[in-house]
Structures are given as structure tokens and as C-alpha cells.
Design brief:
- By secondary structure, the protein is an alpha+beta fold.
- The chain has one domain.
- Helices cover about 35% and strands about 35% of the residues.
- It has a 4-stranded antiparallel β-sheet, covered by helices on one side.
- Strand 3 and strand 4 form a beta hairpin.
- The longest helix is centred in the first third of the chain and has 22 residues.
């Protein structure tokens, strides 16, 4: 299989992946689902990122997310909704 064929196959697989994610109502990997300051005067942000297979990562970060930041806390959730709910509880 030459490079052109491989690129076409890759594009086809990516389209199929998007279709499956849409059907399952899950986000692609690394998509930010939630982002908010932890509190009014806090230097920390609460961020939820999709992992890409229905699960999500909740992180508390300090700094200029997503460019220059420090992860202070990280937790993986089995679903994107659970992670967003937990993040919302941390910010209210």
C-alpha cells in the first residue's frame, strides 16, 4: 500500500470515527468540555477534557491553560457527563 492509499484509508477511518462518536454522543480526544475558574479570586481553573472513548479527565490547573500551566490535581471519570458534573460542583 503506497502513501496515497494510506492517506485515503486514514481519512476514511477518521470520518468513520466521527460518525461513531456522533452516534454515541461522545467527544473527540482532547476536546475541552468544561473550563471555569475554581472560585472568584482563584488562580486555578477547573478543566474537563474528553479522552475520546466516552471517558473524561478532570484537572485543576494553575497558570495559562492550555499553553503554560501546572496540573495540581487530576482525576479520570468513566463518562464525560460525570466529569462535567464533578467540575461544576468544584466551581460553585
Amino acid at each position: 500500500m503506497n502513501k496515497i492509499q494510506q492517506l485515503r484509508k486514514l481519512a476514511k477511518l477518521e470520518r468513520k470515527s466521527r460518525e461513531i462518536r456522533a452516534t454515541l454522543k461522545i467527544s473527540p480526544a482532547n476536546e475541552v468540555l468544561y473550563r471555569a475558574p475554581q472560585s472568584t479570586w482563584s488562580d486555578n481553573d477547573v478543566v474537563v477534557e474528553a479522552v475520546g472513548q466516552g471517558d473524561a479527565r478532570l484537572v485543576i490547573v494553575e497558570g495559562n491553560y492550555p499553553i503554560d500551566y501546572l496540573i495540581k490535581s487530576e482525576r479520570i471519570f468513566p463518562s464525560e457527563d460525570e466529569a462535567c458534573e464533578a467540575a461544576d460542583e468544584l466551581t460553585t
